[in-house]
Amino acid sequence: MITRRQALLALAVTALAACGDSESAPSAYSAAVKLSSDWKSVAAGTSHTAAVKTDGTLWAWGDNYYGQLGDGTTTPQWSPVRIGRNLST
Fold first, then answer.
1. Hey, what long-range contacts does 55-64 have (CB within 8 A, 24 or more apart)?
2. Of 29 and 4, which is predicted with more confidence?
3. Which residues are 8's β-sheet partners?
4. Which residues are 10's β-sheet partners?
5. Between residues 3 and 12, which one has the greater pLDDT?
6. Cα separation, 39 vs 75, whole angstroms
7. How far is 64 from 2, CA to CA, in rounded Å?
8. How does residue 85 score in pLDDT terms, banded at 50, 70 and 90?
9. Phi-psi bin for 60: left (phi > 0), alpha (psi -120 to 50), beta?
10. What is the sign of the dihedral through the CA atoms of 24, 29, 53 and 38?
11. CA 74, CA 41: separation in Å to the nearest integer?
């Protein structure tokens, strides 16, 4: 969820959660995590999340078993990593 102040709040409720809070592994409990305050939009999958910042950059994190983050690897990312180029150009 993105707040009125453009802060991204992530809520993890499963063992495959993708909060983006730099944890070394997914959490198996509910947790709200605030990630900076410059987000425009967000979309979440079962075990990964992608979000666009107000500057047009795309970021993703979570499980990456099938390469769903789009970073060219299959390595899980437990905090946001920039993907591709600026989307606003």
1. 55/86, 55/88, 56/86, 56/87, 56/88, 56/89, 57/82, 57/86, 57/87, 58/82, 58/83, 58/84, 58/87, 59/83, 61/18, 61/20, 62/16, 62/17, 62/18, 62/20, 62/26, 63/16, 63/18, 63/26
2. 4
3. 2, 35
4. 33
5. 3
6. 24
7. 23
8. confident
9. beta
10. negative
11. 24
User: Structure pTM?
Assistant: 0.68
Give the SS3 label for residue 39: strand
In tens, the pLDDT along 58-82 reads: 999 889 999 999 999 999 988 889 9
Segments making up each domain of the chain, as ranges: 8-83
CA–CA separation, 18 and 8 (whole Å)? 13
Pull the structure tokens for residue 67.
Answer: 């390469």
Please state, in angstroms and as integers, the Cα–Cα distance from residue 56 to each residue in 34, 40, 53, 84, 87, following that order.
Answer: 19, 8, 5, 11, 5
With 0-12 CB in 10 A as exposed, 13-18 as middle and 19+ as buried, what is 26?
middle
